[in-house]
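Exercise 7 asks you to align residues with tokens for two separate proteins.
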Amino acid sequence: MKETAQAAPALAGAAAYTRPAARLLPSPTPESRAFWTGGRDGKLLIYRCRGCGHFLHPPGPACWRCRSTDVGPEAVSGRATVAAVTVNRQPWVPGLPPPYAVAMVELADEPDVRLVTNVVGVAPEEVRVGMEVEVFFEPWTPEGGSADDRIWLPLFRPVAAAGGTDGAW
């Protein structure tokens, strides 16, 4: 679903990042809703199995390790390490001008849990495997949607650019 931009407050230490005019947004499922809305409270919510204690992503109704159905969202630290990165140079999404870094990040809380995201606040060419990053959230309301439909996209920036904030806008 294509989204329209809303004003974003300035973020100390992230002067290199300019919020795009538009992004493609997900359509949350019952399992993924917490992931997409946790940013409202400045929290990155990842499903955790209460049977074996491991985190799992993407969220689902059962743990892929132990098959327990006792799973639910829990806040993680928001820290991660870039595991893979590519720089997109094609104008695929109107309103999202290239170049931008698309990265797979490993969560510090459990490195085999990985998210595909954008790394911002640094030139795309400077994003490197092994770079430590931290989450922050970009709120979006779907075109024609209401405040109840708002999602908070988890994006990552270098830890040094976070400036000691709590990770939320």
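Second protein for Exercise 7:
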Amino acid sequence: MLSLEQVRALEDRVEKAVAYIATIREENAELRRRLGESEARFGETQSFIDEAAEELAAAEEKANAAAAELEAAKAAASQAAEAAASAEEKLRASQARSAQLEARFAELEAKALELSSRAEAAEAKASELASRTEEYRRDQSRIEEGIVHALEKLDLFEDLILGQPLPEPAASPAGPSAAGTEPEPAARDDRPAPLPADITAEPRPEPASSPEPARPAENELDIF
């Protein structure tokens, strides 16, 4: 049988166990409350983490897009630099070409001025030659007219001489007295009269400084 002391000791143990169980229950309730709070906080934290992850994913996408845009901008900048370098080379080449064209244009302009002056001089010379040729033609026409006129007068003179009757021969010493006879005319020279030297001679051109060529006198060809 159990003694009283054993019963009391068992009661003390039972009381201690009951008190310990109550304490454990309180601690368990506290832990459950804390667990609930922790779960609530964990849910909030998880939602925050999810939002942060979504924001991080969106930020990564934006960063990737920005990186792609940056690469595209770098490629465009490189192409723009190459285009600028090519444009500068073309500009330098066009400037050199423009300088060559300007020099060529100046040379052609100088040649054009020279040719223009030479053409003007040639025109002046041609005009002078034309005027002198016209004067020579007029002088030649006048000379030819004078020659024709002189030949006509010479023909008339020859016709007059040839148309006169021949004189009678002189009487012999034994014939009638010489007092009633006409003197014997001198021997007739049938040769034509010489023309002036200026008719057959061609006109000589005057020097360039003389405005007009030498012209024959007005009555120089009138030999009679």
